[in-house]
Structure formats: C-alpha cells, structure tokens
Amino acid sequence: MTTTSCAAESCTRALRDTEQATGQTLCTPCVDVIGVWLRELPLQITVLEGSRQRETTGTSGGGRTVYRTAPLPGRDDVLNLLGPAAWSDGVRDPHGDATEDQHGQLPIAGVLIHWVRVISEDRRWNPPVSLTPQSLAAWLADGRPLDWASRQDWAGVMHDELRDLMRTVRDTTCLRPRRRAIAQPCPRCDSLALVATDHQIYTECGTCGSMYTREELALAARITYAALDADAA
Ligand SMILES: [Zn+2]
Ligand SMILES: [Zn+2]
User: Fold this and answer.
1) 17 CA → ligand 1 middle, Å
2) Which partner for 6 in 27, 54, 125, 195 could form a disulfide, CB atoms 3.0-4.6 Å apart?
3) pLDDT in tens, 10-26
C-alpha cells in the first residue's frame, strides 16, 4: 500500500495500513482529538456563558441602574462565539474553509451546524432536535457520525476548522487542558520530549510526533528495564 498522509493539514503522520484499510482519511489520533474537543466544548461554553452574564449585568447603585459605557475587552469575542446559528447557515461547500472568506470567527454553533448538516443529509440520519452548540457537539462526537466523517475526503478540513475554533475558544476563556512532560524517552526516537495532555488518550513526542497510549509506554518502559537488567547480568 502506498504511503498516504493524514488529511489534516496540521498533522504530519502517515496513515497506517490498518487505517487505510478502513478508508480513513484522518489518522486515528486526529479522529480521537476531535472527540476530545467536542466533549470539551460544553465545559468551555459554560465558562463563556458565565462571563457573558457577568459582563452584561448592570450594577445597581443608589436605586438607579448604572450601565457600562465601554465594553469590557474580550466581550465582543464572547458574544460572537455564543452567537446563534440557523440550519440554513450550514449550507456551504464542504471543501471550502469557513474562515477563509469570513471576517472573524464563526459562532461555535455556526461551525458545528455545517458539519452536522453535511453528515446528516448525506447519511439521512436525524440531526439533533435542538440546535444548541452543546447538542450539536454531542451529536457529532457520538461514534457513528465521527466515524463516518473520518473516512471522507473533507475530514481534514473539518479537523482543521475545529482545531481553529478550539484555539479561539481556549484563548477567550483562558481555559486549556494541562500538558505535562513524561520522564521517559520516546520509544521511537529516544528523545525526552514526551508530553501528556489532560483527557487525551495519546502521549505525543515533541520531537518525532509519534503518539503512544499509556499501555504502549508502560510496555516500552518494561522492555527498557528488561534490557538494562540483561546488560547488568
Ligand atoms: Zn492526523
Ligand atoms: Zn519521538
């Protein structure tokens, strides 16, 4: 089988034979990270909604309501991200990048509704009854739609668009998954650059880009110790 790279522009991994055999255009770590993002979104939305409330509540002083004269920095970003989206907003070229000819970031619901519409109309699956960003994210993250999406030629566009959305959302809430270094050399390139991220299944090597599950790293560590013991004996 010829080597094909993962369709996500931000990813340099080549597709494994097992991934190609199932028709995946995205590598499994990229598919998994989409699931992580979609499950993180409701938490991020709660934080965004909290900051919107705080900033739109006028303060009462001496019986009269005092309104802010200038918007707080960042408030427009929050309102924009929480903006509504209609089902008709989901119509665009699935290969086109939403942010290309758009000024500023689309609302969360606007980004999600497009992909829900593309998938549900092609597969004739019922879209979520409610079009809140939380429901849209839950619908997309549910195994079947994400699984099918990962085999389409536009899967890389979807991945990169959601990655850009998550970057904007995390920048706005200042809420990021924690990353921590792992004190174990990378089984492939031997550099001490392994980083684990909250909620993520894979630990990534910052040098060669390899991804490992916890089990794979535990196994690699046991092999290293066994080799050291053999050397010492
Ligand atoms: Zn990938
Ligand atoms: Zn490595």
Assistant:
1) 14
2) 27
3) 898 999 999 999 999 99
